[in-house]
Amino acid sequence: MTAPWRALALLLALPGTAAAQASYSITNDVALLIALAEPCGFALNGDAVMTYLAEKIPPSDIGWTAFMDLQISAHEGAFEEKGELEKKIACDAAKRSVDHFGFAKP
Fold it and tell me: What pTM does this model have?
């Protein structure tokens, strides 16, 4: 099982509330954008990302930062293993999400 799938399996096996599961989903999504920023040639507005995370993740959820570190590494490794077309698709999708959420660095 590749690293991203192991991380997903871990996420699905985590006990907790729906809110905790939502925090991990949000964390995974943002980690993907952070991991793809440099290889895909875009920059993130750190303040916009931090504001989004502060609004979406409850202050009582302290473990999300460790999960984010794990996911950034997993996404970086998975990207390196992709073929050129897969990389192009991943970068296009990431750039669209960055624009949608207003995370693009001006």
Answer: 0.81
